[in-house]
Amino acid sequence: MGVGLDMPWGGSTGFEQKECRCAPTPNVAKFFKRYHSDFSYYFFSFQPKNKNHLRAEEYFEAYDALVAVEPSSVRAFHHTRLNLGALEPYRKDDIIEFTNEMIRRYDLKWINEDLGIWSVRGHGMPYPLPPFLTGEGLRASIRNTREYQECFEVPLLVEFPGFTEGSNFYIGEMDGFEFFRKLAEETASPVTLDTGHLLSYQWLKGRGDRYLDGLDALPLSQCFEIHLSGCQIRDGRFLDLHHGVLLDEQVELLDFLLTNCPNVKAITYEDPKFSSQGDLIPKAVRNYERVRERVKKWKQTA
Amino acid sequence: METNSLIPLDEALYRLLYHRSYREAFFNENFSSLGLCESDQRHLATIDREQLKKTASRVVTQVLYGADGQSGGIEGIFPRVLRKYRKTFPKDPNSIELIERFLESNYYRDYREHPYAGNGICIEEAFFEFMNTEKPFIDADATNAFLLKDEFLVALMRTLLYNPRASFQVRQADIFRIGEGYYSIQTMWPDMILYAAVKGHFVRGPITPLIAEILRLADGAKIQARTLSVRFNTSIETVQAAFDRLTHLGFLH
After folding, report:
1. Looking at beta carbons, which residues of chain A come within 8 Å of B59?
2. pTM over 0.90
């Protein structure tokens, strides 16, 4: 089991600037200390620290400090700049150079990215939109994925996108699962299945009461990583909140995926919320423990 | 709204998110005005309108207040301009209509949060240029243009200070590169105000015509202290002291 951390700049959890040095906030170090034995790997999500051209060396001080907090674990990187669903021309050289430098310096084992439209015409989205669910959208997503696959020095995991309430909609008639399977087949990419993202799509398609239906349309055999991040169902709408509290439905979906994805190697609790002392927030503990138990059993039988 | 030629689907997405008039045409099912081929019209018909409305509203909020609702938005960059705007136009108490006009403008289009889809300008400059075209605001008070320029230059210089290898371009003709920094001089009679971002320092304050001239000449031929002392009717020592001060601040080498 692993953990995925969003590391924004200047918040209560993430990176902070202290005496001219960038370092993780103290609660991150406490969290790792407290839960060290639970996790065999972690990933951190990229958040830009400024409006400069992207250069890896600007991030070394902060990421070095993060790695120093948890030096022994396997590491991966959750990108947020690949814009895999973009139709428009998108300059990739800086992103590729940045990513490969990160891979080398931190011995990253894989790169993960949501298959989505993260920006259009250089303007960011409040929440990444799914790719255009059209033939043109699929071709563009395949093209973008291949370009990064060819240039990255470790595997790129493509993640099924989220469909959260309030800041997300889709364009196109193709089925989301089918679209994703075709992309995975065409690119032979290992994939990440995020339980919240899958459920959000089921809710959107009106399959909230039978959310395990239709999952076999996904590229289950290519699934390398499973994500579990906090979600909520409010007034029948699905919210991908990343607030640390897992739904019972996510734990059940994890059971399904562990049974049906023969090549899974990583199960990630993503964006935990913890106190200043590094303890998980009380509401998160119950299903976190349930997930931990399941992973333990799965490891024994895998 | 009019659209003469066909646009690609991602351009339609851009307009749905950022152009209220385009969004309204879509909601009103005025498909012929959307500039889309038949198949793209079909694709657009799959959009959940309620979700589009909420997303577009969230875009406005983020541009106004920043992604975290607390910083980085227009409200934080241009607080005095927005206060003055709301006082002048109480019918738009939260500046929502103003921001919607901004999003629909070409100035916003020229702004780039991410540089990978082509070069662009920063949001500070985009909003400054846009507000200059808001004639009812500019003409409402003789000081509004200066207020706008002052707040813009303060914000821009600070942004340039923290982003020495900025991924955006600066296109105002009265902002100059100097050494590794930038400066601009504005005249608010009888004062000349210097705005600058140099060598880790943000500078804003009145300057003398002599300082302005030294800065103007800084990138040109070697400046002659004697010539300046004659032209500004001052001693060579005074000119030399100005050189020394500007060198110390990082304007001159």
Report:
1. 126
2. yes
